[in-house]
Design brief:
Strand content of chain B: 25-35%
Largest interface: A-B, 54 and 62 residues
Helix content of chain A: over 70%
Number of strands of chain A: 2
Helix content of chain B: 25-40%
Strand content of chain A: under 5%
Structural class of chain B: alpha/beta
Number of helices of chain B: 10
Oligomer: heterodimer
Order of helices and strands of chain B: EEEHEEHEHHHHEHEHEEHHEE
Shape of chain A: globular
Distance between the termini of chain A: 36 Å
Order of helices and strands of chain A: HHHHHEEHHHHHHHHHH
Shape of chain B: globular
Distance between the termini of chain B: 43 Å
Strand order of the largest sheet of chain A: 1-2
Radius of gyration of chain B: 19 Å
Structural class of chain A: mainly alpha
Strand order of the largest sheet of chain B: 6-7-8-3-9-10
């Protein structure tokens, strides 16, 4: 480092810096070379949380009423058509685990992005009415008994996706209509209002529909990762792909948004563009995830905070780490949901909140 | 370096600034003084390129602010708001490194040079020893100086290092509004040092006349969006201008020990204010 140093003032206080470093909670930057340090922190975080996600993805399909082993699943001496273990692993259980990975990762990152966009740590992927729109769409299809499938894809996910995108565009239009740029205050208020409004419609339709339809809707609202095959996953993948590519451009700008939009703009951030990309990508990811599994709560708020407690606030680490931990956590919760009271299956949202809630509270108490 | 020519600005239909003109010389230290609501912050946001004038022009070295890219502008002009609240907790060094944003491409990571610039900026504001602290745990005065460091990091190296003429400007919005006496002195000395050592041009908006008198060479008095007077501070700051500005009777005299003008407010004038207040 000394080779680059033609300005010694910044380096003279090294010993006292060490002293203060030991008395702080802020993430350490152990070396003068920040690039190395960021890369290293990213590698450690991705290695840890990414590894966790991969392990859950492999272990989850092994758990179920019919016991199977990895050795027999990957036994190449038996052709696939005769390998029952491989068939159970790949056809019956893997789609469900994959759905968990995609939904968990999407909701966790969408949570991070909404929290940064609204500068509000209490924001979730569902705060801005995206999931209420999705629920309304799904419920209308279920209650009105619309055709089961359109172009091979079931009508419910399509309706819920349209519902979520519709809600997102209403909220976005409200926030940009009479404002210079995008008003995050209006975004938040319009989102919360839309949530109540859609919930009221859902309640009204529920009240006037018959028992079987109500039961079906309530089940959908609880969230379920049993997607039934690879088809729905493949359908959601392009949307999630677009959302994640957009996420990729955001982290450093989101760091600056933390300072407030004026300070960020004064540092050269194109505020309106960043807000647009953040809102669109997070809404798209949430909409696609909810259309796949129904609204699964808790992940979008707890995972980002958990990750920040562990790795600090830099979005370049928080976003990928949240994606990995969100994926691992949801898949693990789903395994618990289908095995705790087997053969009875619990809604996975029950498990995410029951297990994650107390743990998160404990973390909060421990930190203070 | 900075020319404000006949600038007016209106939010919706409400006129906030009308026909404001003044110049800022390279390395100058200008105070924008005025009561609350006189348009100081709006003027500062216009100077920083965050707002566009409704009429008139703001030129940076002869170029209209609107024609300069956001990153290009950020490398030469930095802004420090009255108070900075972080939505999430970053370390002091991370906050200083945020100033490097205009120098990096979308996927680029800060390199050793950026860290060096950020550390030098922290050293210049006397906060190098706080580098690893969490920003949220700092006192108000420390936060303000760290944010100034983050703003300085936008400029890159000290202009004097490159041997070229300094062309940077720092805009400070009410830098001492929420600070106690001790921290006010800290900020004042930081501002003077930056202006002397780096030749950073500085614009300060404030309603605190004594603070302005302790640091500013030139002042612009702003009342209800119009310039009341502008020029060297010892010529402009007089009992009659203070009365016009704040409707307050005051003693304005040079203080031998302080080495600058001091203003002692004596009494609020009667109800016939030019603001139409009913008090």
């Amino acid at each position: 480092m000394a080779t680059m140093n033609n300005e010694p003032t910044g380096f003279t206080k090294r010993p006292s810096r060490r002293l203060s470093a030991s008395a702080t909670k802020a993430p350490l930057v152990p070396s003068a070379d920040r690039r190395w340090s960021l890369r290293r922190r990213l590698t450690v975080a991705l290695g840890g949380f990414g590894g966790l996600a991969i392990i859950t993805l492999i272990v989850a399909p092994l758990v179920g009423p019919t016991p199977i082993t990895l050795a027999r699943v990957f036994d190449t001496s038996v052709p696939f058509t005769e390998n029952v273990d491989a068939q159970i692993f790949f056809i019956a259980r893997l789609p469900r685990a994959l759905a968990g990975i995609l939904v968990g990762a999407s909701l966790a990152v969408a949570g991070v992005v909404f929290q940064a966009l609204l500068r509000n740590p209490l924001a979730t992927p569902f705060t801005l009415g995206v999931s209420a729109g999705a629920s309304l769409g799904a419920m209308l299809v279920i209650t009105l008994g619309l055709p089961v499938a359109m172009v091979g894809i079931p009508a419910v996910p399509i309706a819920s996706l349209l519902g979520s995108l519709g809600a997102a565009s209403v909220v976005y239009t409200m926030a940009t209509l009479r404002h210079r740029g995008l008003s995050t205050t209006v975004l938040l208020l319009a989102g919360v209002t839309l949530n109540s409004f859609f919930s009221a419609i859902i309640m009204f339709v529920q009240y006037s529909s018959d028992f079987a339809q109500t039961f079906q809707t309530v089940r959908w609202l609880m969230g379920n990762l049993d997607v039934g095959g690879f088809q729905p996953i493949l359908a959601a993948l392009p949307l999630l792909g677009i959302a994640f590519v957009m996420f990729g451009t955001l982290p450093r700008a989101l760091n600056l948004l933390t300072l407030g939009s004026d300070s960020a703009a004064a540092r050269g951030v194109d505020i309106l563009r960043v807000q647009r990309v953040a809102f669109l990508s997070a809404s798209l990811a949430t909409g696609a995830a909810v259309s796949l599994s129904g609204p699964i709560g808790f992940i979008g708020i707890v995972i980002p905070h958990l990750i920040r407690l562990v790795v600090g606030a830099d979005h370049r680490i928080v976003m990928p780490a949240s994606a990995c931990l969100g994926a691992a956590f949801l898949v693990a919760c789903d395994v618990a949901a289908r095995s705790v009271m087997a053969p009875l299956e619990l809604p996975v949202g029950v498990i995410t909140a029951l297990t994650g809630g107390p743990f998160f509270l404990w973390l909060l108490v421990r930190q203070r | 370096m900075l020319q404000v020519a006949n600038v007016s600005f209106a939010y919706e239909k409400h006129l906030v600034l009308s026909d404001v003109s003044f110049d800022l010389a390279p390395g100058g230290l200008l105070g924008i003084l005025g009561p609350n609501g006189s348009g100081k912050t709006t003027l500062l946001r216009l100077l920083g390129g965050l707002l566009r004038p409704s009429a008139g022009q703001i030129l940076l070295d002869g170029r209209d602010l609107g024609s300069i890219t956001k990153a290009g502008l950020a490398k030469r002009m930095a802004m420090v708001p009255q108070e900075t609240y972080l939505a999430f907790d970053y370390s002091v060094l991370e906050v200083a490194l945020m100033g490097r944003y205009p120098h990096l491409r979308t996927f680029e990571v800060e390199g050793p040079e950026d860290v060096e610039v950020a550390r030098a900026a922290l050293a210049e504001t006397g906060t190098a020893n706080l580098e690893q602290r969490s920003f949220m745990t700092l006192s108000g005065g420390e936060k303000q100086r760290v944010v100034i460091a983050s703003a300085l990091a936008q400029f890159g190296r000290r202009a004097t290092d490159t041997g070229r003429r300094p062309v940077e400007a720092l805009l400070l919005d009410e830098p001492t509004a929420s600070l106690d006496l001790g921290y006010q002195l800290d900020i004042a000395s930081t501002i003077r040092r930056l202006n002397n050592d780096r030749s950073t041009a500085i614009v300060i908006s404030t309603h605190d006349l004594n603070f302005a008198a302790s640091v500013c060479e030139q002042v612009v008095l702003l009342r209800q969006g119009c310039i009341l007077a502008a020029g060297p501070i010892h010529e402009i700051l007089r009992p009659d201008t203070v009365k016009d500005l704040y409707n307050v009777d005051a003693v304005v005299e040079h203080h031998a020990k302080a080495g600058h003008l001091t203003i002692v407010p004596l009494a609020r004038r009667a109800i016939d204010t030019p603001y139409g207040h009913n008090e």
